[in-house]
Structure formats: structure tokens, C-alpha cells
Amino acid sequence: MRVAIVDDHPLARKGIILILAENKRIEGITECSNVKEALGIIERDKTDVVMVDLKLGEEDGLEVVSKGKSMSPVTRFIILTSFISQSDFLRAEKIGVDGYILKDAMAEDIIFVVDSVMRGKKYFDPCIIAYYKKSSESSSQVNQLTDREKEVLLELGKGISNVEIAGRLYISENTVKKHISSILSKLNLKHRTQVALFVKNMGALG
């Protein structure tokens, strides 16, 4: 089995290489830091498994996956990241990523993931699945809000007062209070501090 590590942080690459070196099934490991180098390795070596950091500096790691699959359909791709947003998760799903694992995973988990995807199985880090499920549930709740309530929700997330919200949205303070009451009810929250945390966890509204 031939593996390539694509990460713009040298120490991160070295750490993963040391971990994978324990897997006797791995015959060779190559490393690089950007999209161009990664595609060159895939085209030249027909690598079996490519582990790609989602963010390669200013470049998008998913570009390695989308273009790499056309070069070598049999190559398996694993996203290795510190964090994956819902939008990135959906993009990765669409282009057919084989596995997702967080960078703080245990050494044995990383080895297990490589073996799993090589056998044709998909692997999803439990933490990523939990986040995705939570994001989906939050999105569903937000969809219950009216457009005006969504605007008020975003302003609440900034931690500003009712008076400031009223001024920004050109509505009365009393109307703001009514919207907040409705938002709390629909999101099953008790106070505006929880609303601010809700917005932070959502990252952005769809």
C-alpha cells in the first residue's frame, strides 16, 4: 500500500508519517504541502491512499480529491482536519471522500482509518458525525423562523441590546421583544445568552 500525506505543516506531516510507519502493510509514504505537488504524486505513483488536510494554506484540500479522483479512480481519499464545517462536509460527500478524521485522533485510530478505506469502507470520525448531526438539527430549527426573526437572531448573536437591534433593523423596541420571545420559543431556549451561543455554534445561517 502506498500512502501520500498532503499537509502544509511539516511537523504535522512528520507526525503522521511516524504513526503510519508502524503499519507493515504500507510500502511507501510520500509527502507534500500543496495541491499541485499532490496531483503530481497521484498521477505519477497512482497512490493507494491520500490523506489531505482540508486547508492547505490559501488552497482548498478538496481540490486534491476532486481532481485526484479523475486521475486515479482507485485511489482512496481521507480528509484530515482540525475542524470541518457543515458546508465542507457536504462538499466532501458530494465528491466522494472516503474518510474523515480529526487531527487529534489517536495513533491507532489513524492506522485503522487507512486500513478501513483501503478495504473499501467509509470512515467517519464520531466527533465529526456528532457535529454534523448537531448542525443539521440547528439548521432545521432555524428554518422555523421567519426572515425577520432570522435577522433578529443574527443581531442577538452579536450581543447587542434590544435598542441597538431596533435601530439597525428599523423596527420598534417592542417589536424586537416580540421577535425575541418567538425565537426563544421556536429554538427551545430560555434566555438571550443561550441565543448568542446558538448562533456561535451555528457558525452561519443557511
What general form does the structure show? elongated
- Note the gap between the termini: 41 Å
Q: Name the structural class.
A: alpha/beta
CATH topology of the largest domain: Rossmann fold
Query: Total strand count, please?
Result: 8
Q: At the first level of CATH, what is the class of the largest domain? A: Alpha Beta
Overall description:
- The protein has helices at residues 10-20, 35-45, 62-71, 86-95, 107-118, 126-142, 147-156, 162-169, 173-187, 192-202; strands at residues 2-6, 28-32, 49-53, 55-56, 59-60, 76-81, 99-102, 123-124.
- The chain is an alpha/beta fold and 206 residues long.
- Helix 1 links the parallel strand 1 and strand 2.
- Helix 8 crosses helix 9.
- The radius of gyration is 22 Å and the shape is elongated.
- The chain starts with a strand and ends with a helix.
- The mean pLDDT is 87.
Provide the fold topology.
Blueprint lengths: L1 E5 L3 H11 L7 E5 L2 H11 L3 E5 L1 E2 L2 E2 L1 H10 L4 E6 L4 H10 L3 E4 L4 H12 L4 E2 L1 H17 L4 H10 L5 H8 L3 H15 L4 H11 L4
Parallel strand pairs: 1-2, 1-3, 3-6, 6-7, 7-8
Antiparallel strand pairs: 4-5
Helix pairs in contact: 2-3, 7-9, 8-9
